[in-house]
């Protein structure tokens, strides 16, 4: 008999009848059964998963303290507390004079229908439940008694409450404070002593005084915060090992030093058993971290107490040692300072970096950076280098030495020490950081003239080292120069490249066209710099036009209100200036005219510079002209003022007139202050770089060139001499001094 093909046999097989079932899982066991059914290959059961969110467990909330009990505890009313807890009548010898219950107290009880009824209280039914009640801060009745008084009535209240529930003595509120914490914080020393006596009777003294609140502070910390020296002594008498707790975190000694309670710190050390106590502080610090911040005296004591000197090497969470802290303090360079003491105790800690790779010498490089002129002494770095010369070359994670840090922090004092130190530090001056920058690179980049001059004036500083970008200091100086709108006489971005160029500094190996492209990209010359120029031009012209306008107004008025007045109309040359016959008068007229002309031109140039009708290049040209003519108008105005005063004052007060003429050029000197000061400040650095003869020749050219720029003043006096040849000038002037003044 021939068998059918397998496919046909399968097709003719009678189908199986599947029974539909439904199961609902309501608990963990049902869920496991559903999982097993779903994993079976021949399962015919439809699995439906339904979740049910159970209501969260209700948080247990302690019962609220009855207001009457709270009031009685805060006021130390033993009678009321005794009545609430014992159900007894008010006793004689306390606050009441009668043996009957106070009607006022009964009225207070009746005002709280949800509280204990008077009859219930009499039977003592609610005594235990009353003491379980707490305030909104979690304080029990014993907390309130301990924090609000220490008289006999409060002591008796504490005894009464403690007798009813001894566990309340160590009960903590929501901040973790026990009644002992509360009493110490309130300064109730007698109450603290009494609570300790109660704990002694319960044989829990050590557990109680060492109990920590949520801030990890014992009652000893609270006493130290209050500066309660007597209470600190009492606590240490009760537990001589108390200063060892907590073993981690802020120790009592650290807190006492931080709060500058040196007497308490001394007591902690002397009263502790075998002088053993905790030196720990928060965030990995120890007591020496706090001591160096509080002065050399407490630092000296702490180093004396710490025999093995392990505090000097302790590191906090940032990796900082106490020497890191001390090195950053003002006065760290003084003999006997906290910095000197810690360094002398363990010199090797100088080589310990923090988590950022900064050693104490890097931190010391920042001291006094904000006001270096007030710190004429040698910085603390000198102490480090004198004992550990190799420490001068210590680098941080960025490869910076202390000199790099000093330059970045603008610490002129440290840079001066590095450049002019008696101890050779030439090997440090040219050290490069991870980006290849020397201290000179950073000084040029920052544009600090004072620091740049110090480094530039040291011949051992190499001017031509390149960084990782292939840039020398002169390249960086060129990049720093703005395309326009800078003062050629004062701006550091002008003087730094000028000095480097004079000294013969070279640029890096870069094509000039590539340099120009990078320069234009950096300053946005091809993108948005034109908009910046317009904005700068607008702001500058608005304020710069004020000065020339004022000068033009003053000089115009002075031209028609001449010094000395005018001759009478009936006399010879009537209506003419009275002082026309003097040399000073002619000079005054010419200088006043020049001041008026220059200020008027400066005003017009400022107007054109602010005009939107002109293109940007023409506006910038007008702006430059306005500056030049404004400077000349200021000089002419100062000269006119001096000559005018001399004209009217010299006949009667010649010496005073001379003094005024000498003082008047101060305006001109201030006008060129930046120019002359910068040349004067760069004299010594250039002398060190180029020698005496070359520097003298350069400065001679500078002086002569500047004098030539004001040579027009010579023409004023030449014309004044020529103008006196007029017949009116030869006439005898009525303004000549009378015989009595001759």
Task: Please explain how this structure is put together.
This protein is mostly helical and 742 residues long. Among the domains are: 62-214, Ankyrin repeat-containing domain (Serine Threonine Protein Phosphatase 5, Tetratricopeptide repeat); 543-671 and 711-728, no CATH class. Helices cover 55% and strands 1% of the residues. It has a two-stranded parallel sheet with strand order 1-2. Helix 2 (28-39) links the parallel strand 1 and strand 2. The radius of gyration is 46 Å and the shape is elongated. Mean pLDDT is 84; it is low at 1-20, 90-99, 117-125, 370-375 and 731-742.
Beta-strand content estimate: under 5%
Specify the CATH class of one domain. Answer: Mainly Alpha
Separation of the first and last Cα atoms: 166 Å
Percent of residues in helices = 40-55%
State the strand order across the main sheet: 1-2
What number is the mean pLDDT? 84
- Rg calc: 46 Å
Quaternary state reads single chain
For the biggest sheet, the summary is: 2 strands, parallel
CATH-derived architecture of one domain: Alpha Horseshoe
What's the tally of helices? 41
Q: Based on helices, strands and strand pairing, what is the structural class?
A: mainly alpha
What is the approximate shape?
Answer: elongated
Can you identify the CATH superfamily of one domain?
Ankyrin repeat-containing domain
Low-confidence stretches: 1-20, 90-99, 117-125, 370-375, 731-742
The total beta strand count reads: 2
User: According to CATH, what is the topology of one domain?
Assistant: Serine Threonine Protein Phosphatase 5, Tetratricopeptide repeat
